[in-house]
Structures are given as C-alpha cells and as structure tokens.
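not sure who needs this but someone in the group chat was asking about DNA-binding response regulator from Aliarcobacter trophiarum LMG 25534 so here u go. i didnt clean anything up, its just raw.
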Amino acid sequence: MIKIAMIEDDLELAEVLIEYLKQFNIEVVNFEEPFLALSSLSLQKFDLIILDLTLPGMDGLDVCKELVKLDVPIIISSARSDITDKVTALKLGADDYLPKPYDPRELEVRITTILRRFNKSLDKTVEETKEKIFVLNEEKREILKNDKYLRLTAAEFEILSLFIKREGFVVSREDIFENSDVLNSDYENSGSLAVIINRIRHKIEDNQKEPKYLHTIRGMGYKFIQ
C-alpha cells in the first residue's frame, strides 16, 4: 500500500481526499499542524507528501524547505494564486504544484505519475498487480487478463478500469457516470449501462450466469473481485 503524509488544516478537504484515495490502495495520514507534521515525518517513513501552503503557525514554504531534506516527493496543494509561490516552491525542491480547487481524480493521477518516476511504492504495487488476473495499464489504455489483451470498446474500457481501480468496493451507477468521459445522460436514461456490463461479463467471465469477478450488488451497484 502507498503511504502518504498530508499537511492540511482544512479538515473537511482532508477527509474527502483520505476517503477518495483509499480506493486506490493509498493510505493518507493528515497532519493539521505543521510542527507536529515535521516531528512525525522525521520518525515515520512516507512515500509522498501533500503540502498546503497556508498553515497555522508556520508558512508552507518554510515547511517545504524542511521537507525537501527528507528526500520524499512533495506535491504542493494550495489556494494561493501568486505565481511567485509556485516558482519558489518548485525551486525549493517540490515536485508538483496543484492549485485549489481541484478534482481529486487529478491528484490521484499526479501521485501515480510522481511515484512512478521515483520508483518507490508504485514498484511494490506493480509487483503485487503482476500476480493478479487482471492488469490495467492506463497509459496504453490496455487491460490484460492472464497476460492476454482484452478487446474492449471505449466505454467497456472505462467501466472495467474503474472496477479494477476500486476492487473490493461497491461501485454505484452514479459513480460510473461521474467518472466517465465516454458515457453521458443518454446512456443513463436508456439503460444501456446494463448492456455494457453484460458485454464486459461476456469478455471476462467463464460463465456469465455465475460471475466470478464482476458481481451485482442489489440496490447498490457492482463489485469487482479477483
């Protein structure tokens, strides 16, 4: 599991990000107070740090100066619009700067990209993934089952990708449409989603009538297990 430290005094935002990233096998520990964060980070090992710049008691750029000494990738998450802050943070050694407000999906992508570059926890995750039946490669837009490529339409790929990333969690119809760039309200109203789900089952299941991987959770949505 990827372990991330977040220094964020907006507890409502922190809670949203913690819950969202959990589904991607990312554990987030939030520190509301920067001095406590610096003390804890000197004792605990994390794969990445998400740092807000507007913090109580200490300026975020000063915190950044201390964090770069730990040799851990840093993503700045800030509502400050001054380009000087962005330039200063990057010059200090931060790896990315994400202005607020932002979509949590973008944060997850940036975390994955940075960790791939650092070859740290993501390598462990990839090793674990190799042992699984289904392997998702988002960059190549490919999904493999037992090392064989699945021939999928754009909609099928999007939905199955979401299921794989949220393995073990219930995914509702609303989740599918909110996280899709292909599906629109026409699909939602026409019932075409059920048709696409059936097509996916046809391509991944040995027996559609007794699905092993993609299960319907009555009244809630779908759950993918492998």
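also The mean pLDDT is 87. if thats useful
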